[in-house]
Amino acid sequence: MNKPASNKYEETTLSSQPIFQGRVVSLQVDTVRLPNGETATREIIRHPGAVAVLALIEDRMLVVEQYRKALGKSQVEIPAGKLEPEEDLVEAAKRELEEETGYRAESLKHLSSFYTSPGFADEILHLYVAEHLEKGEVHLDEDEFLDCESITLEQAQQYIREQRISDSKTIMAVYAWQLYKLTGSF
Amino acid sequence: MNKPASNKYEETTLSSQPIFQGRVVSLQVDTVRLPNGETATREIIRHPGAVAVLALIEDRMLVVEQYRKALGKSQVEIPAGKLEPEEDLVEAAKRELEEETGYRAESLKHLSSFYTSPGFADEILHLYVAEHLEKGEVHLDEDEFLDCESITLEQAQQYIREQRISDSKTIMAVYAWQLYKLTGSF
């Protein structure tokens, strides 16, 4: 089904310098040979990947508000989190949904998987939609503090205008939800 | 118009360690005080921000195919690039569009601005739509190699299924285009 990736203009790695190995990301600087024979450097962030869930309860979606240190402000986002090593994607999405919102999903449907910043990072985010939720229990990570609420599509669009929602996965989920309401399918 | 950001659960910076200052990104590790009084570390990537353009010529959008070293493969994306210091957003978007595709836009409409990876990076991407294009000249950066083509909405959706298109800004642009065709407005 998937065509093999075209690798025209491939950049050959001449050397790779590890700079940092952290809890969430690592950073390396690769020296590459360009298609014209010249060399260049590429700063590359490695990330384990993440899952996110558009979780719908009747006509409302679940969102969480949390402080984002990288942005220096709080943001409203759909439930999400990074993958644990070897973790199954659907299990990870169900885990994050329940940890952050207290809701359990029987089944999830895959909506899309996308690279967040292909210019410098390999992070991939797998987005799912969940309907038919049942109430479980919130249990946050020890360094995680957030509030959960459920909002309508109109509220979500208002939050986007107010920049309370301003991240790629959540805006993408709102677009997908809007398309679902117009076309009847995800 | 924009509400002040809520900063409930704010994390106070206790110290900030610079790790790396590169050509594109920088990395720091902050030690923070959490709302419960405990401390934690936050790995933070700083990025200058970027612009991207959904450029439509009649019923086709312009895309470029280029090798992405962070992903180890080529990808099809809308024209985009990072901001130069002090650069005006609309001028930057026009510049990247013309450099990569050879098309000039008289005017651009702002579609959305979003953080690509708020968990660890401050990169913000400003997405514009351009219609009424006129042919100018391609002039790529010296370390930039890419091919430009124009594709229909159906081809774009096929590319997404084939994972030739798989980054957040391009999938978001395709969603916005699809919504435009259904609703008549961006």
UniProtKB/TrEMBL annotation, chains A, B:
Q: Which GO terms describe its biological process?
A: nucleoside phosphate metabolic process; ribose phosphate metabolic process
* Nudix hydrolase domain ranges (all copies): 45-180
Cofactor entry: Mg(2+)
Q: Which InterPro entries match?
A: NUDIX_hydrolase-like_dom_sf (IPR015797), NUDIX_hydrolase_CS (IPR020084), NUDIX_hydrolase_dom (IPR000086)
Q: Which PROSITE patterns match?
A: NUDIX, NUDIX_BOX
| Keyword annotations | Hydrolase
Q: Which GO terms describe its cellular component?
A: cytosol
Where would one find the signal peptide in this protein?
A: none
**Gene3D superfamilies from the UniProt entry:** Nucleoside Triphosphate Pyrophosphohydrolase
- Which protein is depicted? NUDIX domain-containing protein
Organism per entry: Paenibacillus foliorum
